[in-house]
Amino acid sequence: MKRWLVLSFLVVLLLFTSSCSFVKEYIETGDVNLSVLKQKENVTVEAHNDRILFIIAQNSFRDEELAKPKQILKSAGYNNQDVASITTEHALGMLGTVVKPDTAVKDVNINNYNLVVVVGGIGAMALADDPDVINLLIKAKNQSKKIAAICLGPVALAKAGLLNGMNATVFQAPESMAALIEGNAAFIDKSVVVDDWLVTANGPSTADEFGNELVKLLEKQ
Q: What is residue 30's three-state secondary structure?
């Protein structure tokens, strides 16, 4: 009887908070470990001082390639995040997300950031042709910042010379592949590629995995 009372309580709790993974684990396994439940309830995420800069296109950035990594980083305690675009006018995502950038790329002080992330989408090709974006990426590399890009974002890294001799991936299209070849990158046909200070990913379906790798990259000494 006691076991069924506990089960009933947990089912009700699950209905109100689907994020409680430990309740879901209980329903699936039938095991109750009250000490584990208590430990998980008391877990707190350590806040980090690292600052992350996301660079998005003014038009047609890929929505989830910004949203998912930002949320994953925030969940890991990396709350200091800024979004930059060509201007501070509202930027429009391919799926309709509207973002007000915190700063224009030309005004970024790279000294303030530990990680720079170039978000993809069709509009990322315009980032690769923007001199302010290219100059910022070069400064980031020269100051040994950690750098990442997803989807078509690696094209900007290639044009800035950051992929020279590096393993990288990209959304495969004739222009993007040509940019990596010209930038002397070693193309790896994988969803996410990590090479030292660099993380690249090949499209929106990899946004979660990409975000998790960003957390690992920041944790590296």
A: coil
pLDDT digits over 8-63, tens only? 444 344 433 433 443 333 323 334 344 443 444 455 778 899 999 999 999 999 99
DSSP H/E element including 187:
strand 186-187
- pTM to 2 decimal places: 0.81
Helix (H, G, I), strand (E, B) or coil at 59: strand
Closest CA to 118 of 96, 99, 140: 140
188 by Cβ neighbours in 10 Å (0-12 / 13-18 / 19+) ranks as middle
CA 76 from chain center: how many Å? 12
Residue-range domains of the chain with CATH: 2-41 (no CATH), 51-219 (3.40.50.880)
Integer-rounded Cα Rg, in Å, for the chain is 20
